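Hi R.,

Here's the chain you asked about this morning:
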Amino acid sequence: MGQYRSGIYKNLPPVNVFMKILFLNDAIPPRNIGGPGFRNFEVARELLKRGNEVYFITSCQDREQEGEETKDGIKIFNIYSNYNLKYRNYVSVCNWAVLGKIKKIIKELKPDITHVDTVHIHLSYASIKVAKKHSKAVFLTSRDFMLYYPDKFIQKEKTCGEINYKVNWLDNLRVALIIKLVPGNKLKDIRKALCLGAKQLLSII
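And the predicted structure, written out as tokens:
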């Protein structure tokens, strides 16, 4: 992705491979300053600096905000979605109100990579299947446990089969283990604590 020379790659020769990268995220700054959207946008800025084309598809809850805009050189497609959140367990699987618009945008962009993050409220998991069909590769960061919520078991396997690579909390812990940030004997305890609650997790770190 551009001339990446930092970290473990710093001694490698420059690789001038520039890509068209699309992010799918329910909410991004400035309308929402939550962690996933903020971090995605920071990554997008860096990818743009390295010569890649970067786009976002996100949602908005005000019809007047729907449409295209450009922020820091990144083109953003805002798609209107506003419904009673008590139906989220169903809408998050497939939000028919936005899916057609998402499909049209991705079909026209034909991204090399689509990165999917938090889409469990508005863009819905059905957007992953659309992205897979019209992108060369799809990456999913499953930071939210809504992905594994029991009410979605009907389409869980079918939807998750549409991605090329999954990144989850356990992958991040393995990386931390490799670089010795987490002692080996703590990994099992941390995994168990995640099931029991954040309070116990804090007590063992």
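The two ends are 35 Å apart (CA to CA).

Let me know if you need anything else.
M.
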